[in-house]
Design a protein that fits this description.
Blueprint (H helix, E strand, L loop, with lengths): L9 E2 L24 E8 L2 E2 L3 E4 L10 H5 L2 E3 L2 E5 L5 E4 L1 H14 L9 H12 L11 E10 L12 E10 L7 E5 L17 H16 L4 E5 L7 E4 L3 E6 L2 E4 L10 H12 L3 E4 L4 H10 L2 E8 L3 E10 L2 E4 L7 H13 L10 E3 L1
Parallel strand pairs: 1-4, 10-11, 10-17, 14-15
Antiparallel strand pairs: 2-3, 2-4, 2-9, 5-8, 6-7, 6-8, 7-19, 8-9, 11-12, 13-14, 13-16, 16-17, 17-18
The structure holds pyridoxal-5'-phosphate (PLP) and 2-OXO-4-methylpentanoic acid (COI).
Length: 355
């Protein structure tokens, strides 16, 4: 087909909107879904033209390959509305590219140029009223692709479905986050799929995270699978550690998701004159810094979580608390990134995209 534009996306609207049932003042994360979704199927070797349809359940045969072999990937981004009701996305091209990076690794056919961005813009056009304006809320956008072909043969599917669903959402975490530094389980390994947003990466984290939650922590901090000596990332966030005045984050690799928030934070911190080091950081170094008082902050960074300060961590049956700083890097960087996202501040980086 020719290049996808807004005008060749067919739209079927709901007969009655559900929007009046929504309490926009008390939104949780990802629990309520907007009226419409984008739907696009891959059959006979081609991605068909996406459509916008009412948000609806899917009917799938029990032999559908997603259920058996987990061939599924997803993305996460947000839409924001400013005081003039203008709608913005934050670095959506990066999500579009990353979805195709994940697709390639999971033997899923990549989406053609424009399907992600043009499809998303068309969807937002239809569901613009679902974008919250309350402080700390936004429209969370979940694009995903799964194997919708059938059969028990353990091989890539011959059919796929691409959907974009959206959910008006409040904060991902309520309050501060405590973490357990993992000594046994691994999220990913060299040569594996850790850098892809593959659904199974998250399923594999649930059990170790449950164990951490039973011990009173919110999240696991993943360490490298080989030695468990180096800090890599959190369950749904990249991780930043401030020792004295230096902000440190681990380099991305096969094992770590190349977070869009992470790279934005690195750029903003440098712009603020903060010394940033992208390097391996050992658990020993962090524990030592906690003991000698040079560990000032730890925070997670991700689209859903934005910047989530970590108030303490556990390691080898010992708990370490972090100081509650008044002018933390976390609060300064969170303000700068959310002001750019919501069009409250000038975007000197060219990240914001008006829809
Ligand atoms: N790491 C993992 C495992 C994630 O799931 C996410 C969330 O998307 C991130 C990091 C942060 O990535 P981004 O900032 O692109 O949302
Ligand atoms: C996001 O931050 O968008 C994510 O995809 C994390 C998700 C597991 C909630």
């Amino acid at each position: 087909m020719s290049k996808l534009t807004n005008s060749n996306i067919e739209v079927t609207k709901v007969s009655t909107s559900r929007i009046n049932d929504v309490d926009f003042e008390n939104l949780s994360f990802g629990q309520i879904f907007s009226d419409h979704m984008l739907l696009c199927t891959y059959k006979n070797g081609v991605w068909n033209t996406p459509k916008i349809v009412p948000y609806q359940p899917l009917t799938l045969d029990p032999s559908t390959k997603i259920f058996h072999y987990g061939q599924a990937i997803f993305e996460g981004l947000k839409a924001y509305k400013d005081a003039n009701n203008d709608v913005f996305l934050f670095r959506p091209e990066d999500n579009s590219k990353r979805l195709n990076i994940s697709a390639k690794r999971m033997a899923i056919p990549e989406l053609p140029e424009g399907y992600f961005i043009e499809g998303l813009k068309a969807l937002l056009h239809v569901d613009k009223d679902w974008i919250p304006t309350q402080e700390g809320s936004s429209l969370y956008i979940r694009p995903f692709i799964f194997a919708s072909g059938q059969g028990f043969h353990a091989s890539p599917s011959d059919e796929y479905t691409f959907i974009i669903a959206t959910a008006p959402s409040g904060p991902y975490f309520s309050g501060n986050v405590t973490v357990l530094i993992e000594e046994h389980y691994s999220r990913s390994a060299n040569g594996g799929v850790g850098y892809a947003k593959a659904a199974g990466n998250y399923a594999g984290q649930f059990y170790p995270t449950q164990l951490a939650v039973e011990k009173g922590y919110n999240q696991v901090i993943w360490t490298d699978d080989n030695t468990h000596e180096y800090i890599e990332e959190a369950g749904a966030m990249n991780i930043f550690i401030r020792i004295n005045d230096t902000l440190i984050t681990s380099p991305t690799s096969d094992r770590i998701l190349d977070g869009i928030t992470r790279k934005s934070i690195i750029a903003i911190a440098k712009d603020e004159g903060i010394q940033v080091e992208v390097r391996k950081i050992s658990v020993t170094e962090v524990v030592e810094a906690a003991k000698n008082g040079s560990l000032k902050e730890m925070f997670g960074a991700g689209t859903a979580a934005v910047i989530s300060p970590i108030s303490g961590f556990g390691f080898k049956n010992k708990d370490y608390e972090l100081p509650d700083l008044e002018n933390s890097y976390a609060s300064k960087l969170k303000k700068r990134i959310t002001d750019i996202q919501t069009n409250k501040a000038e975007d000197t980086f060219g990240w914001r995209v008006k829809v």
